[in-house]
Design goal:
Layout: H1 2-25, E1 39-41, E2 47-49, H2 51-65, H3 70-79, H4 93-101, E3 109-111, E4 114-118, E5 123-126, E6 134-136, H5 146-162, E7 177-179, E8 186-191, E9 199-204, E10 219-220, H6 221-237, H7 239-254, H8 257-286, H9 291-336, H10 347-353, E11 354-359, E12 365-369, E13 374-377
Parallel strand pairs: 7-11
Antiparallel strand pairs: 1-2, 3-6, 4-5, 8-9, 9-10, 11-12, 12-13
Helix pairs in contact: 3-4, 5-9, 7-9, 8-9
């Protein structure tokens, strides 16, 4: 009886798997609607947009492109009383991350990302090429544009590369204070933690990593806050000059004509070389040739194709990076315009406008804003 039950379970599992894969091949997309923000099942069975939820998704994308961390976004949504996809009150970092990285919000779907390894225990495994994946384009309505989605992915990769995703988000200074001497981030260190003289300072994370002690001194949060207030007030004191620098920066960033031509040229080169490769393979299949000569010719063409594709990819990455800079610069200037002088530290303004702060060896700070403007503040 046990063997019969096991075989029956196997048959059911195989039939379900077969049905799902046929649906994948036909491009049928189904979402876990009860735990997926922005969509609901339409009358035709396909996903349709829930505008109130889609607005939250767009806000998450916008805040991320403006420089907010996923920790900050999660705390903000929780404070605003916005429900999570599962209907909970508290947002987690993983929920925000999944929304930012889901291709479904741009109207596409990659199907069969996971599969069942064991039909008895129903163990799931990430599909790493063991079985086919299916990429369905234009499968359902779009909540964020393809361009905006690509910008978020580029920004995510940049933060991963720079190490910014490691920051806890508990402090607005995490991964923003940079040591001028060695280029490392400054991290919080607690002094006299068990005494009445307890204080938190920010110190170079590599201060004692090498044979020589890093020369950059530690700084206090109060000093960083004061430097930001001074730098921001200096920036808006001559708003006309700031606007002129902003216009010059935008003109530089927006003009991607040279990069566009490079992409077109490299793409054309790829197409030509791909045709030469196909012809070489076809000739080799229909006529007797010296295989050493054929392999040398084939490898030369393959290397030529790879070089052209790499140049095209680099140019496209630069175009995406410029678009990201444009979005962040516009968000920065929207925050600056109409602002009066600061009388105290504004954390939200800091998050929206500051790219990084270099802590100088001789004392003082160099505040770099998201519009590439820099203001140096002497030490006290």
């Amino acid at each position: 009886m046990s063997s019969l039950a096991q075989e029956e379970s196997r048959n059911i599992s195989e039939n379900v798997t077969w049905g799902k894969r046929r649906a994948f091949e036909q491009g049928k997309v189904s979402l876990p609607y009860k735990r997926f923000l922005g969509y609901e099942r339409g009358e035709d069975g396909r996903p349709q947009i829930v505008e109130s939820e889609a607005a939250v998704v767009r806000q998450i994308y916008k805040m991320f492109l403006q420089g907010k961390t996923i920790n900050y976004i999660a705390r903000y949504l929780t404070a605003q009383g916005i429900a999570t996809p599962g209907g909970n009150e508290k947002w987690s970092v993983s929920t925000v991350r999944s929304i930012l990285l889901s291709e479904k919000y741009k109207g596409e779907a990659i199907l069969q990302k996971t599969y069942t390894v064991d039909f008895l225990e129903h163990k799931m495994k990430r599909n790493e090429g063991e079985i086919p994946k299916f990429h369905v384009e234009n499968s359902h309505p779009v909540i964020v544009t393809v361009a905006q989605f690509d910008l978020v992915q580029a920004e995510w990769e940049r933060r991963q590369r720079d190490g910014n995703q490691r920051q806890s988000g508990l402090s607005p200074f995490s991964s923003k204070l940079i040591c001028e001497s060695c280029g490392a981030y400054l991290g919080p260190k607690t002094w006299h933690s068990t005494s009445p003289y307890r204080r938190v300072v920010w110190q170079c994370n590599r201060k004692y990593a090498g044979n020589a002690v890093c020369e950059t001194r530690h700084v206090t949060e109060e000093a960083v806050q004061a430097a930001f207030v001074t730098a921001f007030n200096s920036l808006i004191s001559d708003l006309a000059a700031t606007q002129e620098q902003h216009r010059a920066f935008m003109e530089e960033v927006i003009d991607t004509s040279t990069l566009d031509r490079r992409v077109a040229k490299c793409t054309e080169e790829c197409e030509v070389v791909a045709e030469l490769i196909r012809k070489a393979v076809d000739d080799n299949a229909h006529a007797v040739q010296d295989q050493a000569d054929y392999e040398a010719r084939y490898n030369a063409l393959a290397a030529r194709y790879a070089a052209a594709k790499e140049k095209a990819d680099q140019a496209q990455a630069e175009i995406r990076q410029r678009e990201l800079l444009r979005v962040r610069a516009e968000a920065f200037f929207a925050e600056v315009e109409g602002r009066g002088p600061l009388t105290g530290f504004d954390e939200q303004l800091w998050n929206c406008t500051v790219e990084s702060v270099a802590v100088l060896v001789g004392g003082g700070f160099r505040v770099r804003f998201k519009d590439r403007l820099e203001v140096e503040v002497p030490g006290r």
